[in-house]
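Technical annex, item 7. During the second reporting period the consortium partners agreed on a shared format for inverse folding records so that results from different sites could be compared directly. Each record opens with the tokenized structure and is followed by the designed sequence. A conforming record, contributed by the partner at site C, is shown below for reference.
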């Protein structure tokens, strides 16, 4: 069956992308560091996301104190105790929100710096760092989905902040804003795509960089026989996150022929024997189904759901 797949895919990948022309992972891996304001800024955002991921990994929700407070709403002592215990978590959640807000402001600048034809080829280091950024965005959102205590903690804080305004590290107004954001299933992708929408309204080609990265990633995974399992995972996660963000930012989404994404190629590579060794495939398929906006729209080609079954 695997052999028949490769025969079927043979003509599918006869013609490589012309922009970018990075067709092997080693080009990204061996790229010399570039020096520009955008290159420096992306390092900060990579560090921020790594820190957020580590924090989410070790997050300890205040389940017991909240449960006690909810069971005795008139007990001021229990309410105060729960509120006090929440403060360290609330401070970190606000920090999470602020860092992702800054990321959302940065990504349009990053796309603009790579938008011109040939720019991705000319700066493979920045391209590689962007792929890593997309990978971390996906991982942070996936980890947040698996951390319901985060939203529970902040919801209790938001409901209680009016009772203890003098002790509150986050104002009631800010708490309402953060609460709506943290309720998003994928708050990082949501924030980034929201910031991109304004630029897309002025210039629809803004998000084409995301399509180019998705196409490049699919090509390298399928055609570069030296790519390792870890590198495949990095590229597939970045490919899917590119599609998710593009779909949420562009008015018509990513699942149409003019989106710039070689959609059938990207989806077939993700579900192919080439990626069979990757544990992340099921999660990435779910990202495309449930983290996008246009997946289940009437004008999405039937092959999309068929491939992702």
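Designed sequence (site C submission):
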């Amino acid at each position: 069956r695997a052999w028949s797949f490769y025969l079927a895919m043979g003509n599918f990948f006869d013609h490589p992308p012309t922009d970018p022309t990075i067709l092997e992972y080693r080009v990204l891996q061996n790229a010399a560091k570039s020096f520009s304001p955008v290159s420096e800024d992306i390092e900060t955002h990579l560090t921020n996301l790594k820190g957020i991921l580590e924090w989410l990994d070790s997050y300890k929700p205040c389940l017991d104190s909240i449960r006690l407070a909810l069971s005795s709403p008139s007990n001021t002592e229990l309410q105060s105790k729960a509120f006090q215990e929440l403060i360290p978590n609330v401070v970190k959640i606000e920090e999470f929100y602020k860092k992702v807000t800054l990321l959302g402001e940065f990504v349009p600048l990053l796309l603009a710096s790579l938008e011109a034809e040939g720019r991705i080829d000319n700066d493979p280091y920045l391209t590689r760092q962007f792929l890593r950024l997309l990978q971390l965005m996906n991982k942070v959102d996936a980890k947040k989905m698996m951390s319901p205590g985060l939203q529970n903690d902040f919801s209790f804080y938001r409901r209680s902040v009016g009772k203890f305004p003098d002790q509150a590290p986050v104002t009631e107004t800010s708490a309402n804003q953060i609460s709506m954001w943290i309720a998003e299933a994928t708050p990082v992708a949501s924030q980034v795509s929201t910031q991109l929408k304004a630029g897309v309204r002025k210039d629809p080609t803004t998000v084409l960089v995301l399509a180019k990265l998705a196409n490049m990633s699919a090509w390298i995974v399928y055609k570069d026989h030296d790519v390792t399992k870890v590198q495949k995972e990095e590229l597939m996660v970045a490919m899917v996150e590119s599609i998710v963000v593009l779909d949420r930012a562009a008015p018509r989404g990513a699942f149409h022929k003019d989106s710039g994404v070689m959609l059938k190629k990207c989806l077939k590579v993700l579900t192919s024997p080439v990626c069979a060794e990757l544990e992340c495939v099921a999660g990435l398929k779910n990202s495309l189904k449930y983290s996008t906006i246009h997946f289940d729209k009437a004008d999405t080609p039937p092959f999309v759901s068929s491939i992702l079954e």
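The chain is about 70% helix and 0% strand. The CA atoms of residues 148 and 247 lie 25 Å apart. All partners now use this format for quarterly exchanges.
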